[in-house]
Amino acid sequence: MTVDLASDLASRANLRDPSAMSPPEVRVVQGNKTFGWGSTQVPALADINLRLQPGSLTALVGPSGCGKSTLLRVIAGLETLSSGEVLIDGQPPAVLKQRGEIAVAFQDPSLLPWRTVESNVALAQTLARQSVNRQAIRDLLARVGLKGFERAKPAELSGGMRQRAAIARCLITQPRLLLLDEPFGAVDELTRRRLNLELPRLWEERGATALLVTHSIDEAVLLADEILVMSVRPGRIVARIPVRLPRPRQAQILRSPEFHHLVAQVSEALGLEPVLEGQR
Amino acid sequence: MNRLGSEPRAKLLGDPWVNSLLMVGALLLAWELLVRLLLSERYILAAPSAILERLASRPDLYARALLVTLREAALGFLYGNGVALLLATLVALVPVSERLVQNLALVVFCLPLVATGPVLRVMFGTSDGPQITLAALAVYYTTFVPLVVGLRAIPASWRDLVVSYGRGRLAMLRYVRARAAVPYLVAGLQVAAPAAVLGAMVGEFTGAERGMGVLVIQGIRSLDVVATWTVASLATVASIAVYLLAVAFGRWLSPGTPPLLLTARPSRKPSPAAAWISLGMALLTGLLILGVWQMSMDGLQLNRFFAKRPGDVWAFLVTHANAGSHRRQLFQALGSTLGVTVPGYFAGLGVGLLTACGFELFPLVRQGAMPVAIALRSVPIITTAPLVIIVMGRGGASLITLVAVMTFFPTLIACAQGLRQVPGQVIDVFNTFAAHRLKILVLARLPAALPAFFAAARIAVPTAVLAATVAEWLATGTGIGNLMALTYSTSNYGLLWSAVVVLTLVSVAGYGIVAGLERWVLSQVAPEQVV
Is B165–A108 a contact, with Cβ atoms under 8 angstroms apart? Predict the structure, then answer.
């Protein structure tokens, strides 16, 4: 039996209802979130209203501790709002989550140290109740530059490679909603730039709605269709900046005046001196 | 690998195995010379050569006894660890149950083996049931506690990963927690293996027909020094052997260093509500135990003459016409036991901590002595007790020494490992200032070792009570251990059950006091280490 036939059979097993395959619309309505009880209550999110366009990539930027990650976790259904609601195609996140159609990339790669790279990626398919497709996993690992490391344990990889394995784990289930929580926060600048150019290609092929939490303004402008700027505690959305740069975006775009204009705009919304950013 | 401490390994003697063998050889030689040159006129110590001679003269006797005990220990090990696995799985799947299960497990762990033995004996008759049950009781807690820690000790992002795919606790257990807990299980099994041998031998004390425990009793009764030392040596070798077996099994199951086990408590913020919940849980635990006790006795239709119910103990100590004299008898014995347990316990803790500090100041000593100390931790009280009594006589000093010895080894090992928990970079900072080892010890290592010290101190409470009561039972004729032996031989079951209840409560209370002290000290010294 040829490999092609095997992968064809396996991918057919993963086929779903075509209408369910389209990327969902995500809405947060009047979202508020507080942590703690009584006098020790800390407001984390205040009056959040947002809409993620189906199939768009939205970046969420803001200072440390502003509640970006909390907002992402709320949309992922890992936390619940104190008031307000999260609707994914009009339904609570749990519905999509139960079908294994959400994938989250966390700040650290969180690979299981006793599993190989391949089997860590396979775990996502198992958890999403899909059949494990070895060939698809190997293809995807090759796409993220991990060819030859399928059988390596996470401890044998560099930080950047682990993060790429985590991205592969995220994408293997063909999620309709992709939530990325500062996935490149802990990798070195060179790896980060490479991943910033790779990620959009992988995402564009798959057509998922995506939310990227980041504290890098450059990264937000480079990757996103729209940037939401959050203020510090309690987190509010203080600006909404559309990014109308053409796709696919190449490295040259980093030197274009439009790019710098957008970076300045975001910096200003964050309360930073735009001049400082412009000089970088 | 991250560097813990920055002492370079001394290459003096090479392989740690060679090191340990040399150490053991030197000890044996010193022992032989001591007996031949200094103690030849006094019959308190048998030389290794005499022990070998005795073993060679009765190989069938010793081999049979050893096999019987090892079989009971193996079965108890299986049952006890099986129960520990089940309980830990229950806690992982139904987290609400944790507090209650932990409380129940602690109370059962605090049951005095010396008293549980006779109670089981009257229920089981002459079968090997008591030996196996006691072996199981001796191991389940030391496996359950690290297992619960291991099942819980997963990074939050692994939990989030499973939850983000809409999966629940069962998937979490299956794909993440179970495998993550293996190193902790391994650490628990290493302590459990020799404990099973101890449990089996205590069970044999209460009227078994065969086994090492029977030979111990015979040796003591006949005042046969060589026989006592022979069976003690054999039990020691067996205990160390099963410990090494558990280590080898652990290495195969999970390569790498086992984790250091600190605390078994979930993180919880202090609040008035939490205090009330604790109190409520304690009450619920008490009620549940009384209920299970009553119902199991009734359900098995056990004779009220020997199978006392909670009401009988209450009557014996409170409402009976002679309740006052009962209480006086019991509490007098208890006072005598505590009079040796408490000083011995603190001496063991103190000397253990000081020795561990000494190891830090003299790293060469540490290298040679640590493997020996870890092996000696496996030596059961049953074998230590007769030896200490032969050497030091049947007085209070013997008892205090015994309790101290049994507390010393676990404390030493926990502290020696705890002192090494300081990250390499911190030690490097001290080294850049050319700080003396003593300064590093006081300022960096000791605070880092506190959680390990307290973890050892908590577990040592029931151990200390066990050590004191076993020695009283076997030899000194004092205290509550002796009282339990007497009540058993005179069929005074009311007093026996009352002694079990009181001694268990004392152990649990002691454990609680140490746990409270731990919380307070850690919150003062190292708030981030209160877990």
Answer: no
